[in-house]
Structure formats: structure tokens, C-alpha cells
Amino acid sequence: MRKAFEMVERDGGGHLVGRIYPGTSINFEAFSVPESWAQLVSGAESGLARLTEEDFETFVVGEQSEQVAILKRQGDLTHAHVLIDGYFDGWPSENTQPLQVSASNADHPRDPNPWQPITDAVDLKHLGKLAEELGECTSAVSRCIIQGVDEREPMTKKLNREWLEDEIADVLASIELVIDHFKLNSMKIIERAEKKERFLQQWHAQA
Q1: How many domains does the chain have?
Q2: Is residue 115 part of a domain?
Q3: Gap between the Cα atoms of 99 and 4, Å rounded
Q4: What's the domain range around 179?
Q5: Is the N or C terminus of the chain more exposed, i.e. has fewer CB atoms within 10 Å?
């Protein structure tokens, strides 16, 4: 489990979200799972040990759809899934039993985290425009699903294909600006995108 927790730490930082480790890095040499969660460790490590290196990373920090696909393919990862969620959430409480896998998050609401929204105007413009472009791209995708890629939008009479092309271009432009403005790791993004593309090619082939 230590390797999985370290991967969560590098990917986004469970300590930044959880209440147990607010804003501080974890000393994994001295780290241990809280007692009320410890009974899940053996089964979790057994399941994780059977994963390939690529599937391990995908299962720990990948998209939910990818994680679900791996869960369906290998049925002994339930305990690992619960522990990873528990770590990321900062372990809801030392005195609280781990969430049952069948329970939804709505059945176990979390305490609110003291996050504060950003206020920098330029940061807001970059992220706000990206969110806007993503929303418009979603609308174009939805229209293509409803009508077909080669039909026309009823009001503007514009080909759905052209609308989709335009909105994808706008999203890509905003993504590049956000990467540049926030100095994001472009190589990491490219590597993850390539890995995601390989996974989705296999997923689409199963249709």
C-alpha cells in the first residue's frame, strides 16, 4: 500500500485534501494505516500485487472509468480501492470504520474542507475561459450524439462536424494557455495523454 499512497501523494496530494495531514508531506518510512482500517491491508496488497505496472498506476491515480474497468477485470481490488480513497480523504476518523464499498458518498457525507477560492484576476480569466470552452465543446459533442456528426445544427445550420472542430480547437488553445500560465508540466501531460490514448483505443475496440 505504501507505493500506492506515494503515487497518490505525487499525483495530487492526499494530505492537501484530508484533515489528518493538512498541508504537510508524509513521512512514509514512519507511516501506517490507522488501526480501524488495518484489516483491509492484507487483501488490498494481495490484489495490487497481481496488477501490471501500467494497470497499477491507472488503478491508483487514473480516471474513474479506467479504474472501474480494472475492477471488473480483476475482482480482488475492492479493499485496495477503499484504502486509497481513505488515504486521499485523510481517513474520515480514527474512530470511524472504513466506508462499505457498496455505500455511496452521499451516505457518508464528509466534513467541509476550509478551501478558499482564488482571487487573482488573470488566474480566474485563464481557468474561467477554459471552463467556458469545455462547456461549449460539451454542447457540440452532445449535438453530434443526438443528431449525428454530419447533420446540421437546427438554428445556425452549421454542420455539426464543423462546430465540433471549432470547439475542439478552442479547447486546445485554452489548454495551451493554461499550461503556459500556470507553468504546468507539459511533458507529464503529454505522457499521460499518450497512455490514456492507448487505453481508450483498446476500450473503443471492445464496442
Answers
A1: 2
A2: no
A3: 19
A4: 121-205
A5: C
93 & 125 share domain: no
Report pTM.
0.52
How far is it, in rounded angstroms, from Cα 91 to Cα 85?
8
Residues 103 and 19 in one domain: yes
> What are the tens digits of pLDDT across the range 79-90?
888 888 777 666
Q: Do residue 84 and residue 145 come from a single domain?
A: no
Buried b (16+ CB within 10 A) or exposed e, 128-163: eebeebeeebeebbebbeeeeeeebbeeeeeebeeb
Question: At 159, which amino acid appears?
Answer: L
Let me know: does 179 contact 189? Beta carbons within 8 Å. Answer: yes
